[in-house]
Amino acid sequence: MALFWASIILFGGSIVQGTIGFALGMIAVPLLVEAGYSLSQAVALTTLAIGIQVAFGVWQLREHIPWDDVKLAALLRYLTVPLGIWLLLQIENMDANAVKRLVGCGVLLGVGLRMLARRQKARDLPLSISAAAFALSGILQGLVAMGGPPLVLWMTTRSFDAHQARAFTKTLFLLNAPLQVLLLLLLSQTMNAQALGTALLLTPLIFAGTTIGVRIGNRLSKARLNAIALALLALIGLNAIF
Q1: Taking the CB of residue 29, how many other CB atoms lie within 10 A of it?
Q2: What integer best gives the mean pLDDT of the chain?
Q3: Where are the domains of the chain?
């Protein structure tokens, strides 16, 4: 039954992430924990699924990758993902609901700040703000495989079109996935090869969901993509809290 629910969760999450470029972790991790996986297993399984999912998406969107922005974001996420994993190992035996509520509050705060600053352009943002967003993304990615919200909130201040927006997040997730999975295998006592095998077994479903999501996303304008992203973040934040 755990494998059955994992297949449903990762297929649905792949459709959403293929469409808007993020959210697989925010959808999958809480549901996988409820399906019987430990927090480390859920994070590692989701991370590997994200790596498989975004590999397809990055290839399809390779001509739209904004490499100048990717370089700084990837570097800071490489430095902070290990910190997030360390925090994960510290809280793994704590109440998962408390962690979900904390993340939910952070997501809602970020959405509120983004709506208040919706007219601000990227050139008006100090480098320190961008660096903080990328670092927070890395910490959340390592902690609960939910590194998308800070990236999305930062990215909506950019002049990316819909293709560039999805290419940006997908490329960052792809670059960080190997490091995160490796650290969990080495450091987590509850992580094992079975969880990784599950992700590999479900690769066809992840690919199918990704293909469906990318086709849906290609039909969305930048404005509509941003609106959907912010609305989804708000719903996820509320769901995590309540």
Answers
A1: 27
A2: 82
A3: 2-241
* Residues recorded for the chain: 242
Q: Which DSSP helix (H) or strand (E) runs through 145?
A: none
Handedness of CA 110, 6, 198, 208 (dihedral sign): negative
| Separation between Cα atoms, residue 70 and residue 61, nearest integer Å | 14
Per-residue pLDDT of 103-127, as tens digits, reads: 778 778 777 766 765 655 555 678 8
Q: What is d(CA 183, CA 18) in angstroms, rounded to the nearest whole number?
A: 26
Whether the Cβ atoms of residue 40 and residue 181 lie closer than 8 Å to each other:
no
Residue 63 structure tokens = 């001509």
d(CA 43, CA 180): 9
Q: In terms of C-beta density within 10 A (0-12 exposed, 13-18 middle, 19 or more buried), how is residue 144 classed? A: buried
Per-residue pLDDT reduced to its tens digit, 142-167: 988 888 888 877 887 788 887 888 88
Query: In angstroms, rounded to a whole number, what is the distance separating the alpha carbons of residues 173 and 55?
Result: 9
d(CA 35, CA 30): 9
For the beta carbon of residue 119, count every other beta carbon within 10 angstroms. Answer: 7
At 120, give phi and psi (nearest 5°): -75, 135
Cβ atoms 124, 63 nearer than 8 A: no
pTM above 0.85, yes or no: no
How far is it, in rounded angstroms, from Cα 54 to Cα 37? 23
3-state helix, strand, coil in the chain (%, to 5): 85, 0, 15
Provide the 10 A C-beta neighbour count for residue 131.
14
Residue type, 69: D
